[in-house]
Amino acid sequence: MQLKESQVAVLETASADEATSVDAVAEATDLPPETVTGAVFELEEEGLVAIEERVDETISLTDEGVTYADERLPEIRLYEAAVDAGAADEPAQMGQVIGASGLEGAGVDIALSNYARKGYGSIDSGEITADPDADSASDAEANALETLADAEETAADAVDVEGDVLDGLERRGLLERSESTVREVTLTERAVTELMAGIETAETVGQVTPELLTSGEWDEVEFAEYNVEADAERFEGGRVHILRQTAERVKETLVGMGFQEMEGPHVDADFWINDCLFMPQDHPARTHWDRFALEAPTHIDDLPDQLVADVERAHREGVGEDGEGYHSPWDEEFARALALRGHTTSLSTRYLSGEQIGEIEPPARFFSVEKVYRNDTLDPTHLLEFFQIEGWVMAEDLSVRDLMGTFEEFYAQFGITDIEFKPHYNPYTEPSFELFGTHPTTGELVEIGNSGIFREEMLAPLGVDCDVMAWGLALERLLMLMYGFEDIRDIHGTLCDLKLLRETEVTY
Ligand SMILES: N[C@@H](Cc1ccccc1)C(=O)O
User: Whose CA is nearest to atom 11 of ligand 1?
Assistant: First the structure.
């Protein structure tokens, strides 16, 4: 009998009395495991081997788990510091105990959220008590971490730890379970007979080459068969980030709805970012707490004189006969200060004023999908920068129904059909609405945007005398609703979840 080289290698390595794993065969023959698996399936087809499959579960500690195995669990460090501070007898000051425990940052939160749960004591209005009967040396989770820390990977059925303790550690993100399929082969009787009769190695060809074709040799060689069941090596090629893909899709959708794209600077004068939006100069969002100022250059060179005068007048006196201004200071120097834009509404003011592409006649629709920068506190829904989907429609008679209808049409194209609106306040729109969508897995309402109809005090100085409805929507929040992830940091930045980014299927 004639067989392929890899098949012969498997037959010579496996035995009839004892099952041999594919990995063991691969190691003994120096062949890649994928090749061995392929050969094993072909041999099974020929009735030469029997395959047994099982799924092995292995357990390994995450980086955080390894850290705690080494430095001990945060709640135990807190308990020991509390006992040292005498909290077993009377309540001790929380701040002091935390200081003495050496815990920092997230470690403190982790300690606090597990402390009472695990019976180490109680925490109440800044004071901590320690239960004298608690025994940190018999903490099941700590002991399990210690057991698991010895091996890089442990077979699940060989671990001497209670299942619910493992579940708890997994929930805390301290261990990971993974599954792999193990295949074992045993030679059949037929294989033994054939081996005794002698098996020859046949040359097989895996790929047709130009040489095979031109020489005519293709007609004589034996081709390897396709095995669609064989495990193949996995290639993680580069791909466009889902955020970028979705940005492109949003752009195409808006272009399809008749919008034109706006362009403009990331760093801009406060004049375009705020003053043109009838944002008073003493508005809290305009303090250094909220904006990223520029060190050099600090101010824009040029602003259109007439527009500056008109905007200043609107701020001081309001617009129209019974208009009211802010009666607050207005200073051109302040308006000329440069900052990273906190919203792309700066592009809208540039376009609406005629500054960017000249006078725009109604009806007109414009949009941008661009980055904005805010000095927010990082959390699952906030980053220091995000993409805003800015847009506006200029027409003679616009109402809230036009605004809501536009959002319904837009979001429906992303499969989101349950938008909710909540009345809101912006200095530059009246009425104003915040938009919410329902998170597909948690069911929570997520804020996805802010919108409204630009008010007279903003439009008149810009020289616009018809209606303009406008909005700023968060691209990342749209992604959350589309793909169901809960933490924005999963898709951006150092904590991003590569598996999620690799595996998310983009739906078009
Ligand atoms: N600039 C607003 C969004 C917005 C734009 C235009 C009109 C109304 C609201 C924000 O960043 O939240």
Answer: 343
